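Weekly modeling sync, notes
Attendees: S.R. (lead), two postdocs, one rotation student

Agenda item 3: backlog of single-chain predictions. S.R. asked that every request posted to the team notebook include the full sequence so nobody has to chase files. The rotation student volunteered to paste the first one in as an example of the format we agreed on. Action items at the bottom.

Example entry:
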Amino acid sequence: MIQIKDLHKSYQMGSNSLHVLKGINFNVKEGEMVSIMGSSGSGKSTLLNIIGILDEADSGSYMLDGVPIKNLNEKVAANYRNKFLGFIFQSFNLINYKSALDNVAMPLYYQGIKRKERIEKAEYYLEKVGLSPWSHHLPSELSGGQKQRVAIARALASDPKVLLADEPTGALDSKTSQEVMELIQGINDEGKTILIVTHEHDIAQMTKRIVHLKDGIIIDDAPVKQVRASLYV
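Predicted structure, as returned to the notebook:
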């Protein structure tokens, strides 16, 4: 599903160049659930941004579901993001003046799907994450856990090939974190490929493989015995 070879990325910092990714080799098969760990500045967010087609590497290759991701103009990049990827963020990134239902339906609008079908799909995914009764509530009327469930429903609505989650439990208390991870594990059980950037070891243990980054290099990449979130809830 994801094939990355010899990926390098640098940023200009005034007159200096900061080499953030230093030859990353990284593959993810369909249906895997992988966490990416590393301290601040290790390159994990840069790697996630490149995988999410929000940034581009300086050199190396990136294939997503057999499609080379290189030298894309913004229109094509946006199209690929809509087609291939669903995003879950620590800060939820919901539109405050739109209901939960309209937030979930938003990616479908950009795919050109008619309103009736958008609403039906949004209702289906809100039900999937257990939020049907809150579909017409604004984000300000929802708890942190409920907001993240809306964000997960939105990420799923366009049926992406890969879910990218950037610190999905970072703004949540431990009990709510376990509930959100139980939901994410259930989505993976259904066959969805999921990548999670996290600095929390207990969250990483709930995936099936942990990749450790340090100073822009993968120093460890190993499968783990997955801890089921339902044991904590």
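Discussion: group reviewed the output briefly. The helical segments are 44-51, 74-84, 100-110, 115-128, 144-157, 174-189, 201-204.
Action items: rotation student to repeat for the remaining queue; S.R. to check formatting next week.
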